[in-house]
Write a structure and sequence with these properties.
The chain is mainly α and 241 residues long. 72% of the residues lie in helices and 5% in strands. Residues 1-13 have low confidence and may be disordered.
């Protein structure tokens, strides 16, 4: 590669913005900790979910006998969520409907936040790994609650020398769940950043809309569905032993 190409490549790199910026720094236990764009976007999404939940609660407390408008939308969401959870968890679904619903809304809104110019929080591994850890604690709790000592002896089945493999399989669950979600969302974020940063202006008219539909909306919905489905499958599997 000739030396004349280096300034052009560096200039192109400087135009690519992955929306990862340090907004505030503070000291915590001797370490510098940063508030980034991901934290701010996560807070925005949480506030939006809370506002929707409070508005839905207020509406349902004064519900009309014949639902219309916002009430109709809320009832449709609840009924769809009930069918989604009960079809996967059966009789155990009622206890976990609120958690799965909240998880789906948070992951879905995080995935599609790029449509609104935000940095998807799920494009950071810290977010996806934290969500996977919550699921991991939940299904291990149910494993111990329902299977008692079998939760531990099951690691030695069907043969005792398979214990290391079974243990690795348990530990790898939150890692695989978090990496799957993180990888797909991060890939879409990188692709869109490269598209906006490296292509000329005329190529940014119209085409990005189709790309956003796939990388943000379609892929985001699929990944939210898969993450929640895996959560329900793992929890149900531990409950039923």
């Amino acid at each position: 590669m000739g030396y004349g190409m280096m300034p052009m490549l560096l200039a192109a790199d400087n135009e690519v913005d992955f929306s990862i910026h340090h907004l505030l720094a503070y000291q915590f236990m001797g370490q510098t900790v940063y508030i980034t764009t991901s934290h701010v976007c996560m807070l925005i999404i949480i506030v939006c979910i809370m506002i929707f939940a409070l508005a839905a609660r207020r509406k349902m407390l004064h519900a009309d006998e014949i639902p219309t408008g916002f009430q109709n939308a809320v009832e449709f969401i609840v009924e769809t969520l009930q069918g989604f959870v009960n079809s996967s968890m059966g009789k155990h679904g009622k206890k976990y409907m609120n958690y799965v619903g909240t998880l789906f809304f948070f992951v879905f809104l995080s995935n599609i936040s790029g449509l609104f110019g935000l940095r998807p929080p799920t494009a950071d591994y810290g977010t996806t790994f934290s969500l996977a850890l919550i699921t991991f604690v939940m299904f291990q709790y149910n494993n111990i609650k329902y299977n008692k000592i079998g939760a531990f002896t099951g690691l030695f089945q069907p043969l005792w020398f398979l214990f290391p493999i079974n243990l690795i399989g348990e530990i790898a669950t939150p890692v695989s769940m978090s990496l799957r979600l993180f990888g797909n969302v991060m890939a879409g974020t990188v692709m869109m950043a490269l598209y906006y940063g490296l292509l000329p202006v005329f190529a940014k008219l119209g085409i990005p809309a189709a790309l956003h539909i796939y990388f943000d909306l379609f892929s985001g919905a699929i990944q939210a569905y898969v993450f929640c489905m895996l959560t329900m499958v793992f929890v149900t599997d531990k409950i039923e032993g």
